[in-house]
TrEMBL record:
Keyword annotations from UniProtKB, A to Z: Coiled coil
One annotated Gene Ontology cellular component of this protein: centrosome
This protein's record includes keyword Nucleotide-binding: no
Biased segments, Polar residues type: 62-81
Name of this protein: Uncharacterized protein
InterPro entries attached to this UniProt entry: CEP350/CC187
Coiled-coil positions: 100-143
Ranges of Basic and acidic residues composition bias in the record: 1-19
Species this chain originates from: Ladona fulva
Biological process terms in GO annotation: microtubule anchoring
Location of region: Disordered: 1-86
Length: 172
């Protein structure tokens, strides 16, 4: 029965080591201090476990310094873990904000490109219509139909006015 309990205590401390938080990302100095703290905590738990075994056999040990060291080491580890969590959350939030800003800039650029294309299409359409009206006006002059020529001029002015209004709308 004693062998079973000692094996259980050793596997429990190994399991606690595996479930310990991952070391923070960073330089070698951060990893070294993290592993030293973890090793100290695991070694202190093994010593505490050995003291508990001695207590099962009737030997009393009133030294509680090992338990104090364990609690100090684990509280320091918890503070480091919470700082790491806060830092990683801050970095994540910052990266999400930067991505959002890039997407907004991309949308604005696409919107500008679409408006520019719309304006160019409007200008091309107006030019084509003006060219057609100029040809009709020339034909009416050759035939001597001045009434039709004046109506064509009105249509041309209407086209130019419509072009100006739509360009103003696009530029807003």
């Amino acid at each position: 029965m004693i062998e079973y309990s000692s094996k259980f205590d050793e596997t429990a401390s190994e399991g606690e080591l595996k479930s310990a938080p991952k070391p923070p990302e960073g330089g070698a100095g951060d990893f070294g201090s993290y592993s030293a703290t973890t090793k100290m905590t695991v070694e202190n738990k093994k010593v505490s476990t050995n003291n508990k075994r001695k207590n099962e056999f009737g030997i009393r040990n009133l030294d509680t310094s090992n338990e104090t060291e364990i609690s100090l080491g684990s509280s320091q580890l918890n503070e480091d873990s919470s700082n790491t969590d806060h830092d990683s959350f801050t970095k994540f939030s910052l990266s999400m904000f930067q991505q959002l800003m890039r997407e907004e800039e991309m949308r604005a650029q696409h919107q500008q490109a679409l408006l520019k294309l719309r304006e160019e299409a409007l200008i091309d359409k107006t030019k084509a219509e003006m060219t057609l009206l100029e040809l009709k006006k020339k034909q009416y002059r050759e035939k001597g139909q001045e009434d039709a020529v004046s109506s064509i001029r009105k249509k041309q002015r209407g086209l130019l006015l419509r072009l100006k209004l739509e360009r103003d709308e696009i530029l807003r």
